[in-house]
Amino acid sequence: MPLPETGGGQARASDAALLDVAWGSIRHGLWHGTPLEVRPCQFEETLREPGASFVTLRIGEELRGCTGSLEAVRPLVVDVAHNAFSSAFRDSRFAPVSPEEIAHLELHISILESPEHLAVASEKDLVRLLRPGRDGLILEEGTQRATFLPAVWEQLPDPRDFLSHLRQKAGLPAGYWSPTLRLFRYAVREIEGGKLDSVRAAAVS
Q1: How far apart are CA 199 and CA 109, in angstroms?
Q2: pLDDT at res. 7
Q3: Which of 79, 77, 57 is nearest to 68 (CA)?
């Protein structure tokens, strides 16, 4: 299902609300060790609807955490709260974010559209269908699963490199192909959060 169309002012208000929730969940996690409890009824309709999101944290050019959801199974505002907390404190690649790091964090939210199944018979067919810079990709083989957000194209602009690294992320050989391989692409809407101080400034401007 495509992301809902909203007016410019409404979209900005929704984005600001999601950013506030994401930062609030990270602050709550620092002091309480749990995600922020969100009451969807307090938010506008588009944020109460089921949605899937990823929250990416960086310090400078370095990744500091990235987790998310591929299926829309809970209200979008709740999903963002949980994924912001998980990116800061549950990404197994990193130590939990410390209070000293909060001022240096940059936050980015990706809201996913419903994935589209790609019925392809070969890697060549898949490469022809992929839209570099636009498509996120999900790869599944049995219980093994991995995804790359569209932003990964910035580091891996060649489709074959993109696929090789995604297969390795899923625990498969770089050149793996099988008739049972399942592939899905999706688009995202990006919300740039910047640093916490910039979000506060935007909220009062």
Answers
A1: 13
A2: 52
A3: 79
